[in-house]
Specification:
171 residues, alpha/beta, six-stranded mixed β-sheet, globular, binds 1-O-pyrophosphono-5-O-phosphono-alpha-D-ribofuranose
Length: 171
């Protein structure tokens, strides 16, 4: 049976979400950025984050699947839902639950840039560097984690555990 080892509790998660929301609100004080959540994992983080903003914002989602039901990442990335908002000339903030190898984000950044936004920045709940293969730069990272397979707060294993309010290492 897999074991869940607690890593980040509700309070720790909430504290960083508020800090990142404050930083973004300050950086985009006179703008109305478009937040694009990367499905499915980012849906909980994004919904908490945008409710803490003190600026006006638009929200959309991009559906991407890269892992299937296994813990080992595959080479392919599948677009399951495209954005619906016109981001040409807009400031975009891509919101990820976790950046692992960085491959998904690299593909997504290229895809979003093809729509001609003014800027594209990255916000991630978890910056996990153990298996990083790209030099993608994360502008707003809530938590840096060195290793482990993480679940909870949107993160899944074979579609399970997304609903847990805390984050765990799965062993
Ligand atoms: C996860 C996560 C990122 C990606 C990170 O998505 O949400 O999009 O993997 O991995 P990488 O940095 O190695 O590319 P996943 O494909 O598991 O889909 P999900 O968001 O639906 O859980």
């Amino acid at each position: 049976m897999p074991e869940l080892i607690p890593l980040l509790g509700k309070k720790e998660i909430e504290k960083r979400v508020i800090e990142i929301a404050d930083a973004i609100s300050s950086d985009y004080e006179n703008d109305e950025p478009v937040f694009i959540g990367v499905l499915k994992g980012a849906f909980i983080f994004l919904s908490d984050l945008i409710r803490r903003l003190s600026i006006s914002a638009k929200v959309d989602f991009l559906g991407v699947s890269s892992y299937g039901d296994a813990t080992a990442p595959s080479e392919r990335m599948r677009l399951t839902k495209d954005i619906g908002i016109d981001v040409k000339g807009r400031h975009v903030i891509l919101v990820e639950d976790i950046v692992d190898t960085g491959r998904t984000l690299n593909h997504i950044i290229d895809h979003i840039r093809s729509f001609g936004p003014e800027t594209v920045k990255i916000c991630a709940l978890i910056d996990k560097r153990e298996r990083r293969e790209t030099n993608v730069s994360i502008d707003y990272a809530c938590h840096v984690v060195d290793k482990g397979f993480l679940v909870g707060y949107g993160l899944d294993f074979a579609e399970k555990y997304r609903n847990l309010p805390e984050i765990y290492r799965l062993t």
